[in-house]
Structures are given as C-alpha cells and as structure tokens.
Amino acid sequence: MTAKEIRQTFLEFFKSKQHHIVPSAPIVVKNDPTLMFTNAGMNQFKDLFLGEAAVKYPRVVDTQRCLRVSGKHNDLEEVGIDTYHHTMFEMLGNWSFGDYFKKEAIAWSWELLTEVYKIPKDQLYVSVFEGDEKEGLPKDQEAYDLWKQFVPEDRIVLGNKKDNFWEMGDTGPCGPCSEIHVDCRTAEERADGRGKSLVNADHPQVIEIWNNVFMQFNRLKDGSLKPLPAKHVDTGMGFERLVRVLQDKTSNYDTDVFTPLINFIAEKSGFEYVGAAEPGEKGWNEAVAMRVMADHIRAISFVIADGQLPSNNKAGYVIRRILRRAVRYAYTFLNLKEPFLNQLVPVLAEQFNGVFDELNLQKDFVQKVVLEEEVSFLRTLATGIQRFEKYDGGKIIDGNFAFELYDTFGFPIDLTDLMAREKGLSVDMEGFNKALEEQKNRSRAATAIDTGDWVIVNEDRETEFVGYDLTETETEIIKYRKV
Ligand code: ATP
Ligand code: MG
Ligand code: MG
Ligand code: MG
C-alpha cells in the first residue's frame, strides 16, 4: 500500500464505524496560552474534553499535522539521529466524545491493525497503565482484561506514568493510556524472546505506533487531577511509523513519505544516502543531514503555510531555529553553500496535494519565505562557523562567545550547542543566558530613552546591520552597531 492508501484506509475504517471525518487543525496554535504548536491530535478538541464546548459529532476521525519541538513534547534532538521521531508528523486519530470507551477503542484498534492492515499478531505488544500510588491512580485492570481477549498475557506490558499516562501539557486533559508497539526486527532476531523487554526501551526496531488515551481527568494548575464531566477516547497513531511497518522498512525515511525528498537531496547534492550507516561509519553524517533536511522542511513549510512566519520571538523563532539547523547541516555535511532547502517545497507540496491542500495552494509564497531565510542566514553562517572552528577555549564553550555567535552571526543557542556536541564540547549555558539577559536589559534601557518610532542615526557615522535582537515582546529590534 502507498502512504496515501494507508491514510485513506484509516479514515475509511473509522467512517465505517460511524465516525465523521474532520480536517486537520492548523499546526500553529493561536488561541491557547498553554501551547505554541499542535503537538497531538487532541489539541483541537480540548474544549470538548473539558465539557466547555458542545459536541456536534460524538465520533470523529482525522489525520492531524503535529509538531514536537517545544514544551512538554520536544523530540528535536532525536530527529535525524533516529529513524522514527520527526519534528512534523501526522497523527491519525479516532475520537469518542462521551460516546464509546475502552471496549470499542481496543477492539477496533486490534481489528484495524491485524485484519485490515494485516500486521502479524506475533509482532505486536500492547501496554497498559500500571497505576501510580502518588497520584492515587489504580492499575487499568479494565484495559488489561479487554486486551486479554486478543493477546496472550505475555505480550501485555505494564507501563508507568511516563509511558502510560498521557498529558497534553502541564495542564489540561489527560488520562491513562494503552499503547501498541511493533517488533520490526527480523524473524530470527524476534526468536530471541527479548521483544517484550524492548518495548519502551528506545530500540530502533521495536517501536510504539499507536496510543489509545482514555481521557478522564483535567490536570489543574496546582497539579491536582480533576475528573472530567464525561469519559472520552483520544487515539493517536504515528502515520509515518505505520507506513514504515506496512511497507516493511527499517526506517521511516525509506518509505514513500520521505523518499521523494531524500532522493531529491541526494541527487542534487551528489552524495549517496547511506540510510543504514551507523554513527561513526562512512556516510553517517551525510545521512543524518539528509534526514534532518527532509524532516525539517516539512515542519518549516507547514508552519509557514499555517500562518506563522519565521521571526525573532516565540513561535516565529522556533521555526527560524529549525530552519537554521537544517541550513547548517546542509552546509557542513553536504557542501550545499547556496540556498537549497527552498527547492524542496514544491516536492513536498506535490506529495501533500489532496491531503493538506494548504501547502500546495501557497507553495510559491512558502518557497519564497524559505529562500529569504536561507539567504539571510547564509550571509553570516560561513564566518560564524570559521569563528567556531578557531575557538580555542577548552572543553566548555564560553557563554560570551556563544552569545557573540548568536548575536552577531545569528546562531541559535541550540545550534551552537549541537555543533559543540559534535566536537565533544559543551556550552556554558548559564554564561550565555547571563549575556543574553544583560543585552535585554541594555535594550530595555535604550527603549526607555528612545520612545519614538524613529531612531535618528548620527549622520557622521556609518552603521552596519548586525542582526536582530531577541526580545520578550512582539517587536523585533533591529540592531545597528557603529563601525
Ligand atoms: P515516543 O515514545 O516514541 O516518543 P510518544 O509516547 O511520545 O512516542 P504519543 O504522545 O503517545 O507519543 O503520541 C502518539 C503516537 O504518535 C505515538 O504512538 C507515535 O506513533 C507517534 N509519535 C509521537 N511522537 C512522534 C514523533 N516525534 N515523530 C513521529 N511520530 C511520533
Ligand atoms: Mg515522545
Ligand atoms: Mg512513548
Ligand atoms: Mg505514547
């Protein structure tokens, strides 16, 4: 099955169970102070769970574009290094708003995976919440007993609060969950009987694909759990992971979700994509770079298409950081010294045509924005990298130097941190934050004096644009330095 068919099959399956198909919400969240980007399918239904909005359709199914690069769910560091965490990914979900509960959710997820998608049962494991004394939460015996009808008990794993109690953020709807994991190792490897112990253990071939959350509580600001007015089902299946399993690949990047992008990058850069390379082996750095680029362009494009432009604060800065990270990978490991990422936008738009039309409709605009961002960062990147390479200050990179890279060369601090780690170094974060804070104080003081919209530049002096300043406010302060 192609990725498109796999997605459609999911929607159709739940439609046949009286679910109403709804569109994905935008990836950018504009009206929730607790969240910057959509990090799960349930976000757009938050008010329904809390009982604060009227339920129009008690059963819903969709595919939601999600982004996990900030806040409670942040996978950025894994992306490109592993083969199954993305920044932007699709979450397939079926929903019950006060309608069906555990019995149907569990039975249908099993039916879909084993009878429709035909994943062999002996490759599947399921997990159930073991309870948590501190929170006063019992083991989810009900889910356990329901699963027993389908899977032998030695394939049921009891999981702790970290893995089996799902929360959207520090506050908001939450509840115990039951997950499905697939052992994608070879038949020979699977015969070692270790599969169960590899569940939730970060094994690259034993991966979580589907989470069934039984929404029962609202986490309040004081940390307490308040029962919701009704019980709901919220499920989320990682689409790219599902495709990988069904297309029998060992990496999400080997599926048709990613191959058009990877092939384009490989062809244009002249480097071969060695997806199987291990850390330290020939081709590893290039493979990571290609995975990062193929992944990040999806996040960048959808965030822009959904209305958030790169900027110097908040959500806009998150996306600029991701973009700069991708540009640096391309520059350093694939020798791409000219704007390149933007060329991936049409490839991506073509792929998502008929799925998320938002991108195709705005592809020229998105490409232009990405190009401008690339041009701007490539202006300072080379010099910044040279400075970084020449830096000789021991194992810990000085906070003031990291600040200079940030301030003058536009290196987001996590990029400097990443480059440091590649060389076995670390960054003095405290020192960096102090330098940043001092600069903010300086700009606050400066703004207090210059209250007008106009800044009169002394005509006797030449000025040079040196970059933007990150402020806590919505305004960008363009900085000039006397030369
Ligand atoms: P993991 O443990 O692998 O990080 P998770 O437990 O954080 O996943 P959930 O919050 O349960 O993920 O989300 C539901 C599903 O979404 C997961 O079962 C997985 O298939 C998928 N998923 C989660 N994070 C990512 C990601 N960064 N990239 C791709 N798919 C993801
Ligand atoms: Mg996770
Ligand atoms: Mg997990
Ligand atoms: Mg999970």
From TrEMBL:
Question: What is the catalytic activity of this protein?
Answer: tRNA(Ala) + L-alanine + ATP = L-alanyl-tRNA(Ala) + AMP + diphosphate
Per the record, the coiled-coil ranges are: none
Question: Cellular location of this protein?
Answer: Cytoplasm
Q: Does the keyword Signal apply?
A: no
Gene Ontology molecular-function annotations: alanine-tRNA ligase activity
User: Which major enzyme category is it?
Assistant: ligase
Q: How is the cofactor bound?
A: Binds 1 zinc ion per subunit.
Please state the Enzyme Commission number of this protein: 6.1.1.7
Sorted keywords for this record are: Aminoacyl-tRNA synthetase, ATP-binding, Cytoplasm, Ligase, Metal-binding, Nucleotide-binding, Protein biosynthesis, RNA-binding, tRNA-binding, Zinc
- What is its cofactor? Zn(2+)
Q: Report whether Aminoacyl-tRNA synthetase shows up as a keyword of the record.
A: yes
The Alanyl-transfer RNA synthetases family profile domain covers which part of the protein?
Answer: 1-483
Question: Family, per the entry?
Answer: Belongs to the class-II aminoacyl-tRNA synthetase family.
Q: What task does this protein carry out?
A: Catalyzes the attachment of alanine to tRNA(Ala) in a two-step reaction: alanine is first activated by ATP to form Ala-AMP and then transferred to the acceptor end of tRNA(Ala). Also edits incorrectly charged Ser-tRNA(Ala) and Gly-tRNA(Ala) via its editing domain.
Copy the domain comment. Consists of three domains; the N-terminal catalytic domain, the editing domain and the C-terminal C-Ala domain. The editing domain removes incorrectly charged amino acids, while the C-Ala domain, along with tRNA(Ala), serves as a bridge to cooperatively bring together the editing and aminoacylation centers thus stimulating deacylation of misacylated tRNAs.
This one is known as Alanine--tRNA ligase
Q: Which organism is it from?
A: Pedobacter ureilyticus
What part of the entire protein does this chain span?
A: 1 to 483 of 877
